[in-house]
Recover the amino acids of this structure.
């Protein structure tokens, strides 16, 4: 129990964490150059500046472990200052200038923190997570090496999205938006929950993630330094996962031959009567949405829902009850399609009988 308390205090000691990071940096420089570099005056001066920065940054801390660390750090600063400035008068001058350096350091830290916060808000807003912007300032202030921000919302009465955005410090000490995990759960079927981790570099938006987890395909733009901008369709393969548990992606490039506009035109959708309306519909399907459309069947308007199916170079069509139907059923009606199949069956049987040298009694 005592060991657990001790570990908890160390974990909450932000100064100790930053000192450990500095030690790790020293080790890297020692391996890169030589151990003598750590005794170089220029390096010691940088170290002294870092120690003074920590004192300024955490001087108002009320955490007992951190307060003790600051006392020890002050003593280390005095010893280090004597190494860097062996001349007494120079040390006194440095002490006199210390308050001005502290104010300058605080000002610079505030500027850097504000700029970092602005960059993070912009990064998460690009993928549709503006709501977490207000939660980032406190996390940055706490100074953890990495942190996550949760977000949950309902997209229907039974469907819920759970998001966890991950941030971490880079080599310069600034926070970067790294990735987010999205989970789509149907409260009526919680055991069928789907989840996926998306890198910030993928630029997959919240709505696109939702559509992918719903099983639909989306069209994205990629950039190749040699070929320039290219587009492709991607879809999650729920039957194949990588070692980390992420679903692998099925990709369908331009050469695969899926023509979305041709597939839409085949249905004779009313919403494509004007070029503007058609583009709105194509854009929605490209984002992985499942828009409602209207077609004419025997002079009557029929409402359907459609979604892109690049793998089979067609559209998935759903009736007004969200039951999946074929394009043929959509155009002629389920009843006529069923009747057509029934009428064809005797003819096929008769043809087969003739091939076998048999006569069929009608």
């Amino acid at each position: 129990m005592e060991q657990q308390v001790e570990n908890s205090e160390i974990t909450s000691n932000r100064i100790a964490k930053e000192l450990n990071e500095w030690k790790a940096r020293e080790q890297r420089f020692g391996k890169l150059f030589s151990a003598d570099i750590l005794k170089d005056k220029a390096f010691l001066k940088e170290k002294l500046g870092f120690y003074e920065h920590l004192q300024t940054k955490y001087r108002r801390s009320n955490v007992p472990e951190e307060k003790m660390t600051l006392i020890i750090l002050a003593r280390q600063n005095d010893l280090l200052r004597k190494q860097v400035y062996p001349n007494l008068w120079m040390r006194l001058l440095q002490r006199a200038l210390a308050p001005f350096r502290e104010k300058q350091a605080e000002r610079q830290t505030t500027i850097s923190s504000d700029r970092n916060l602005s960059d993070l808000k912009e990064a998460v807003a690009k993928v549709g997570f503006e709501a977490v912007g207000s939660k980032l300032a406190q996390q940055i202030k706490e100074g953890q090496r990495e942190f996550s921000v949760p977000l949950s919302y309902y997209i229907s009465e039974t469907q819920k999205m759970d998001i966890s955005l991950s941030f971490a410090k880079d080599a310069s000490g600034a926070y970067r938006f790294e990735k987010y995990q999205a989970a789509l759960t149907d409260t009526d079927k919680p055991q069928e929950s789907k989840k996926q981790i998306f890198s910030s570099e993928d630029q997959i938006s919240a709505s696109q993630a939702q559509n992918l987890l719903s099983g639909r395909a989306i069209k994205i733009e990629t950039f190749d330094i040699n070929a320039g901008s290219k587009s492709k369709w991607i879809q999650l393969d729920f039957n194949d996962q990588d070692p980390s548990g992420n679903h692998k992606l099925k990709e369908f490039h331009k050469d695969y031959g899926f023509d979305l506009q041709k597939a839409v035109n085949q249905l004779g959708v009313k919403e494509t009567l004007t070029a503007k309306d058609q583009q709105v519909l194509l854009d929605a399907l490209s984002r992985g949405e499942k828009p409602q459309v209207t077609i004419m069947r025997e002079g009557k308007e029929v409402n359907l829902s459609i979604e892109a199916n690049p793998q089979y170079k067609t559209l998935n069509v759903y009736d007004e009850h969200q039951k999946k139907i074929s394009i043929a059923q959509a155009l002629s009606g389920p009843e006529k399609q069923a009747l057509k199949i029934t009428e064809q069956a005797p003819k096929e049987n008769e043809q087969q009988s003739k091939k076998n040298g048999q006569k069929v009694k009608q």
The longest strand covers residues 228-241. The chain has a mean pLDDT of 83. The longest helix spans residues 88-126.
